[in-house]
Amino acid sequence: MKIVVAGAGYAGTLAANRLAKKVPEAEITVINPRPDFIERVRLHQQIARTGRVATPLADMLREGIATRLAAVTKIGDGSVVLDTGELAAFDHLVLAVGSTVSPLPGTVPVGTWEGAQRARARLSDLPAGSTVTVIGTGPTGIETASEVADARPDLQVRLVGSRLAASFSEGARRRVRAGLERLEVSILEDTVADVLPGDEAPGGDQVRLRSDPDRPLHSDLTLWAVLGTIPDLAQRSGLDVDDRGRALVDGYLRSVSDPRVFVVGDCAAVPGSRPACQTAGPQGAHAADTLARLIRGREPRPYSMGYFGTGLTLGRHDGVIQLSRRDDSARRQYLAGRPAIVLKEAATLGAKYGSRTATITWLSGAK
Asked: With 0-12 CB in 10 A as exposed, 13-18 as middle and 19+ as buried, what is 197?
């Protein structure tokens, strides 16, 4: 029994470790383009040099799981094609390649490991008094701006986007704004039209806003913190996809095109889901459980989960967690301050190490 897991993010790592535990006789191979597990929701700490977000896969995966350092370029009939030109055969495949970023030209993306490394190097070279512009007022942008401002109070940090923390309740949004203002992050609720990079505009980047394109903003480093592009692997391989390129799945997270292929995480078209580690975790666990049941000749159970909320940090000493209903709609209640940042950090560790404690059950089952 050969099981291939394509991608070693939250969903893929969870699925591989869970399968190794439940189906110990299976030959499990994790294929990933880099040798490390990256805590993507903490890349802002990598940029600001305030945290370590990369862990060798050898330390993350259960004993007996094989790894191959490569990227899957196509899914075939019972095998995947790697960018090395090799094939990897499978009886079952877990597709967990996540999402990527399509940054605005002239900006540095913060939602990928490679982009975060570029941003980290550029930030380190900035002298005091320089201006950093973060584009995107969702959780990624808010965390990036606040982390940079907290770590480098000698810089001027600007956050630009159409609406600050748009998915939060009004009370939580006010608390996020207050936390950013305490860190002296300036907030512009506007849309960026384009960015003229510094190598084309001497003296730094020029950020043009749609509201006033004739008066561009100076920026010494411009970071792109908007996520959501799906790799075209599923579509390129002939699997049925939605209009965003996510693979269509049945109620058990199997591809509607090929029941041997389970699809989990950002690249799966699951109704009501959003890109998040608290989505990837339960999906990776459910796919593993379903496949284990099928291998044992048992009836699978349909996938179901509910959201708990959305957490974000505001530097190293503050945070906000917007509590939500099961359908992910915001409640009036939220947590803030030190308790919020502790819970947020615990959640990412739960995803990494497989904690099944009550506060982070949506991220359970990694190891």
From this structure: middle
Distance (Å, rounded) from C-alpha 202 to C-alpha 224?
21
* Six-digit token string for 362: 């949506």
The C-alpha atoms of residue 326 and residue 346 are separated, in whole angstroms, by 21
Question: What 3-state class would DSSP assign to 157?
Answer: strand
Structure tokens at 77: 């009939």
Residue 119: both structure tokens together: 């941003």
Dihedral class, residue 274 (left if φ above 0, else alpha if ψ from -120 to 50, else beta): beta
Per-residue pLDDT tens for 208-260?
999 999 999 999 999 999 987 899 999 999 999 999 999 999 999 999 999 99
Q: In the 3-class helix/strand/coil scheme, how is 61-101 assigned residue by residue? A: CCCCCEEEECCEEEECCCEEEECCCCEEECCEEEECCCCEC
Q: 179-190: buried (b, 16+ CB within 10 Å) or exposed (e) per residue?
A: bbeebebebbeb
pLDDT digits (tens, 9 = 90+) for 78-115: 999 999 999 999 999 999 999 989 999 999 999 999 99
Q: Say if residues 248 and 256 touch (Cβ distance below 8 Å).
A: yes
The model's pTM is 0.90
